[in-house]
Amino acid sequence: MTLYDTSDLSINHNNYEKYFSIFPELKILMTTPQDSYYHAEGDVWTHTKMVLESLLQLDEYVSANDDDREIMFISALLHDISKPACTVHEDDGRITSKGHSKRGAIDARIMLWRKNYPFEKREKICNIIATHQVPFFAFDDKPRDGKLARTPEFIAISLSWQLPLHCLLAVAKADMLGRDYAEKQKSMDDIYLFEEICKDLDCYNKKYSFPDNVTKMEYFLTNGAISPNYPFFKNTASNVFVMCGIPASGKSTWVKKNHPDLPVVSFDDAKEVLGLKQGENHGSAYQMVVTMAKEYLRKSQPFIWDATHLSPLMRNKTLNLLLDYNANITLVYCEQQESIIKARNISRNTTLTNKKIDEMLFKWEVPTEHETHSIIYEINK
Length: 381
Fold this sequence. Notes:
Blueprint: H1 44-57, H2 59-62, H3 66-78, H4 83-86, E1 88-89, E2 95-96, H5 100-114, H6 119-131, H7 134-137, H8 152-160, H9 165-177, H10 184-200, H11 213-221, E3 239-244, H12 251-258, E4 264-266, H13 267-274, H14 283-298, E5 303-306, H15 312-324, E6 328-335, H16 338-347, H17 354-360, E7 374-379
Parallel strand pairs: 3-5, 3-6, 4-5, 6-7
Antiparallel strand pairs: 1-2
C-alpha cells in the first residue's frame, strides 16, 4: 500500500479504513466530536470521508496531474489530523478546535518525514493543512500585531509563495462541501470569489511574479502597503546566510563546504564559550551572538548565522534584526532522515539528547520563500 492509492475507491464507497494501516493516527478521528452548528454530520472521521468523496468529484481533482492529485488527496485525508488534540468542550456547550490547522501541519510533517515521503510534496501538503481554512475567511481578516488587516489580494499573493493555490482551493472546496452546515453556500461563494482573485492576480497555478526579491520582502513585511508591481528601491548591505534545521541535519557541513572563509556566529559556539549545557539559561549566549552579528552588520560584512531556527518565532527574531540593518538574507534549510540525525547526534560531543530532539519536532515549521529574499533547501545531503 502506497500513501496515495485510490484505485479501489469510488464515490460513496467507504473503504477508507485501509488508510488506518498507513496512518494509525486517523483512528481517533472516529470518536472525536465536532460542533453541531458547523458539522451536523457528526465526528471528524465522518467529515473526513465526506471531504474525500467531495474531492474525488471536483473537476480540479479529475483534471489534475498525478502529483497534484496526490497532494490534494493526502492534504484532505490529513487536514483535520490534529482536531483530537485541539478539541475543547466549552462551558457554553459548544465544541471548538482552535489551532488544529497549524498543529496539524506540524503533526503531518513529522508523520510524513518518518515515512521518508518526498520533501517537496510533503511541504506542499503541510502548508495546505496549515492554511486549509484561509479561503473561508479571506474576506474577514482582522488587524493584528499593530498591522492593518490583510486584503484578500495580499493573502493570495502571500500564499502563492508558500503552496500551490489551485491545490489549496480544491481542498477548501472539498472541506466545505463535505459537511452538513446551514451556511455552506455562503462559504462556498467566498471560496469561489477568492479563487477568482487568485486567477486575476495570475497566481492560481504559480507564484505571484514580483519585480525582484527586495520588492517581494518589503511587500510581505508591510502586509501589502507597497505596490507589488513596481520595484521598491532599498539599499542592501551585507549578505547573510541564516542556517535552519534540526540539530545534526548537516548545517555545519554545508557551511564548511560552501562558505569556509565566511565568519560564523553560532549559538553552539557561544554556549561552549560560556560553559552552558543543554537546557540551561541561554540568554547570555543569545546576547553574545547578537552582539557579534551587529558588529558584522555595521561593517556590511558577509557572515553566517548558524542556529536551529525551527519555529517562525525564533526565525523572526533573527530575520527582523538582519532586516533592520538592510541585510540581504539567504535562508539555508538543511534536513536529513530521522535515523541519520539521531545516529549523528549520538556520535557527537554534545549534551543534546535524541529525546530532546523529539521534543523539538513539535515546533518544527519549515521556512518558505515568503520569509526571506532567497532560500536554499539542502535535503538528505
